[in-house]
Description:
Strand 10 (246-250), helix 10 (253-265) and strand 11 (270-274) form a beta-alpha-beta unit. The protein folds into 2 domains: 29-275 and 485-497, Aldehyde Dehydrogenase, Chain A, domain 1 (3-Layer(aba) Sandwich); 280-479, Aldehyde Dehydrogenase, Chain A, domain 2, CATH 3.40.309.10. The chain is built from 17 helices and 19 strands. It is of the alpha/beta class. The structure holds nicotinamide-adenine-dinucleotide (NAD). Nicotinamide-adenine-dinucleotide (NAD) binds next to helix 9 and helix 10.
Amino acid sequence: MNLEQIESHDFQQWNAVADQAKTQIETRLFINGDYVDAVAGGRFSTINPANGEVVAEMSEGMPEDIDRAVASARAAFKSGCWSRLAPRDRMEILYSFARLIDEHAEELAVLETLDMGKPIADVVAQDIPACIETIRFMAEGIDKIEGSVTNTDNDSLHLVIREPLGVVGCIPPWNYPLLMATWKIAPALAAGNTVVLKPAEQSPMSGLRLAELFIRAGGPPGVFNVVNGMGETAGRALALHNDVAKISFTGSTEVGKLILQYAGQSNMKRVGLECGGKSPQIFMADLPDLEAAVAAAYNGVFANMGEVCSAGSRLLVERPIYDEFIELFIAEGQHAYAPGDPLNPETNMGPLVDRGSQQRVLGLIECGKREGATLHFGGDKPRGLEAGAYVNPTLFGQVDNNMTIARQEIFGPVASVIPFDGAVEAISIANDTIYGLAAGIWTRDINQALRMVKNIEAGVVWVNSYEDGDMTQPFGGYKQSGQARDKCLESLKSYTQSKSAWFRLTPE
Ligand code: NAD
């Protein structure tokens, strides 16, 4: 069923869809256009974090499976069946791929929710439409990326040609399994590369279906392969592989640094990194609309259970509006997100991805209390949902930027409000972090906003909004938030390389 047909599904219908989906889950690897078992036959469990139930036993890919997938992707690349296909033909296949994702939205949505606990309403309203839009945008861009002819002396002609890289290894995280995978595979495929996707072990199900749909859309076998497995084995083998031309990675800063090492230890492959964040939102006393600003503050840190790389987790509030800000946040934000069963379309907050995450987030909350922050609400597990990995939305006030909760990426629904005096202090606190993914600035003074945009160290800055944008927006970080840019034509270009062809002409 497509997106339009599932928009009005109720809880009962989604439960029925989930029961049906559970009987048909594909657990094998997807290599060279077919489902295959892992060579060593190992398996790992994927667990529904809403109730702790095992959803499926997935094939666990090992280095030998990565070898097989890379060999298949390399043979497909060399054959030219995809890389040399006329741009418009490649475009048509990607459009069909996007259409098939729409037609299979029901199944994809339920897999995503069972796998990582994301509210089904969010998958339907945001994740799947965004996947479709990404594929369409990258397909549209195929013949908009141009080489060039440079100015040379009269006896030369210089062409700069853009070519695909070869085999691209894609390693996404689990927080938006379909969308983060799509942000990688769509530009990689559009540029003519072939792909090996290694999904996160917490969310292994939907990537397999993506690859299958690509083949059904007319994509040649071997162009899009999927190997599930652990990061330290399958992911590492992919990143160390000598026949992989680029690794496109999204995940923690810690693992991002390992990926750079693997590139150095192997073939100096290109590395695109989208890593963690501890993004500030700065609320100046003259902001235009406190209610809208506070709503952006709680949505920016509670949506997707706070498991968002660009979550606005540090809320910097100018002292004159501090008390009012906190009061409004408590009044409006405390009940805006209610943990519940993510298969219920009324639910806007599911569990965290697993028990480990739940323990880590609760541990950081304890640390915030110990270090002297004021806990205004939350900080605990919701009653009645003990079977799942839930944490209540949490608000800390009077946070100092040196506290652990202001420095570490929590990746959970925990907001920290930090008071400040004046724009200079705000910028200094905002930039006092190893990260630099995103930032928000709230002020009615355009001069102030422009000055802050210039001074803030972040790849994405929103003024009087948060998490806004479209496909033209380069999305990526400064500092240890990474160096890649997703979405946008710059992303598509980063999956190509330039070739300089210099012609010496015979004298006239
Ligand atoms: P993670 O770094 O643990 O894992 C990410 C991926 O890397 C997974 O597929 C995992 O299997 C793989 N991996 C782990 N160890 C590996 C290794 N040694 N070699 C190769 N691959 C390995 O991150 P996570 O917990 O899945 O995701 C959360 C992190 O992702 C957060 O830090 C978040 O900020 C970040 N993130 C960033 C963006 C962005 O666009 N900047 C978007 C989403 C998430």
